[in-house]
Design goal:
It is built from three helices and eleven strands; from the N terminus they run ββββααβββββαββ. The chain is an alpha+beta fold. It has two domains: 53 residues, no CATH class; 124 residues, Chitinase A, domain 3 (Roll), CATH 3.10.50.40. The strands form three sheets. Strands 5, 6, 7, 8, 9, 10 and 11 form a seven-stranded antiparallel beta sheet that branches. Strands 1-2 form a two-stranded antiparallel ribbon. The longest helix is centred in the N-terminal third of the chain and has 15 residues.
């Protein structure tokens, strides 16, 4: 099997050995490798690329980490939360007396969005904002239908149901999101 990296071809063998020939020479990797004279800058650039790829956490599974963060938040704030199979937690503080929305409903919600440290990243007016549930993050698509019209409470959303490994505005990547919500209207 041959591995091609830029202009360097390396034959992969079962017992690959790494030998550093000279600080200004290319590294020889295993049987069948070729020796190239390269600059220190090239070696440093290659090392940086390899370390960046190896150190990348974009595919890390945050399910357990988020659940521990949410459990700690629930404990610290003495909440009586219910969990779903997706990892979403919700708290019903006031039971509404209206209809329950579904994924295809347009809802009007007053809300405050914050991180687990209490930093507010978004907030509506008390009149709320109207939008179709199909246009919001998955945590809202699943969580808002837990409330009936007139209901209030909290959504504790793991990062996978929020913005995942993307930073959005002042929300860091892989953030658990907390929303205080009031479901004002369902259409």
């Amino acid at each position: 099997m041959k591995l091609k990296i830029g202009i360097l071809r390396v034959n992969l063998v079962q017992k690959m050995k790494l030998k550093i020939i000279n600080i200004t020479d290319m590294v020889v990797l295993g049987k069948g490798s070729r020796l190239f004279k390269m600059s220190k800058a090239f070696h440093l650039a290659c090392l940086c690329v390899v370390l960046s790829i190896l150190g990348c956490n974009k595919n890390k599974d945050y399910t357990q980490i988020d659940d521990e963060i949410i459990q700690q938040y629930i404990s610290d704030n003495n909440l009586n939360a219910t969990s779903t199979s997706s990892g979403l937690y919700y708290v019903i503080e006031t039971t509404g007396n209206g209809v329950f929305p579904n994924i295809y409903s347009t809802v009007t919600v007053a809300y405050t969005g914050m991180l687990t440290d209490g930093n507010v990243f978004d907030q509506s007016s008390s009149a709320g904002i109207s939008f179709p549930l199909t246009n919001v993050i998955q945590g809202w698509q699943e969580g808002i239908p837990m409330f009936s019209e007139g209901g209030t409470g909290k959504l504790l959303i793991p990062s996978a149901l929020g913005y995942g490994n993307r930073a959005v505005g002042n929300i860091p990547e892989n953030s658990v999101l907390i929303f205080d919500v009031e479901l004002i209207d369902v259409d």
